[in-house]
Design a protein that fits this description.
Helix content is about 85%, strand content about 0%. By secondary structure, it is an all-alpha fold. The chain starts with 5 loop residues before the first helix and ends with a helix.
Length: about 80
């Protein structure tokens, strides 16, 4: 996604050190970690909902095909 090398990471760290300050960096990293963890959970929940929806759609499609096949078999019997 992002192409960051060591030089860019060091530059970002130095800018953060000057702007945020050495005392507040641990607090900021903790908050950033909480945000990243929350985003990861949201992504997981969304993925699970999508997978559940797809499984239900596939199951419904299989049931519809089976019902159509059963109706076709019943219609052929004398």
């Amino acid at each position: 996604m992002f192409s960051l090398g060591w030089a860019e990471l060091v530059l970002i760290a130095l800018i953060a050190l000057f702007i945020i300050g050495p005392k507040d960096i641990p607090k900021m990293m903790y908050k950033l970690g909480k945000i990243m963890r929350r985003l990861s959970y949201i992504r997981y929940a969304f993925t699970q909902q999508f997978e559940d929806f797809m499984k239900e759609a596939e199951l419904k499609e299989i049931q519809d095909k089976a019902a159509a096949r059963d109706e076709d078999i019943e219609g052929r019997q004398p």
